[in-house]
Specification:
With 132 residues, the protein is of the alpha/beta class. The chain has helices at 11-20, 26-36, 48-61, 75-83, 97-110, 123-129; strands spanning 65-69, 89-94, 116-120. A three-stranded parallel β-sheet has the order 1-2-3, covered by helices on one side. α3 (48-61) packs parallel to α4 (75-83). The longest helix is centred in the middle third of the chain and has 14 residues, at 48-61. It is globular, with a radius of gyration of 15 Å. The mean pLDDT is 93.
């Protein structure tokens, strides 16, 4: 079990959360492992318990459209997309084709690629181009 990424979680609370939360499935676990193999940069990936919370939050709030600025290898976007209803959309903004190429593979494996639009450009440019 990894150390908690959230600074406000004690080790005991983190341990409880992991033991009683939704564990990563096979696709998520493979993405975690591939990202971990990238070395220290893997620290940019959210923790699995944070991903499960994102999925839950998106689902219970009835989110239909979401924006993610900074996609990296796609774990958080995969989790957000899984929480969206049929027809829901996630716009991902990132500048790295290298990292997001990993994300795109896992979105396809998870069956959520049709819900995600990736724009490779500075996030501020993408956001400014959105309809108001």
């Amino acid at each position: 079990m990894d150390e908690p990424k959230a600074f406000f979680l004690t080790p005991d609370v983190h341990k409880y959360l992991v033991a009683h939360g939704t564990p990563p499935d096979g696709v998520q676990q493979a993405l975690i492992e591939e990202t971990r193999a990238l070395g220290p940069v893997a620290g940019m990936q959210i923790a699995p318990e944070q991903g499960a919370f994102l999925t839950l939050l998106v689902r219970v709030m009835g989110v239909r459209t979401a924006i993610e600025v900074g996609t990296f290898t796609g774990y958080s976007s995969l989790c957000i997309a899984r929480g969206l209803p049929a027809g829901g959309r996630l716009l991902c903004c990132d500048v790295s084709d290298e990292w997001t190429s990993i994300a795109r593979r896992y979105w396809s494996q998870a069956g959520v690629a049709d819900r995600i639009e990736l724009r490779l450009a500075p996030g501020v440019d993408t956001l400014h181009a959105l309809p108001r």
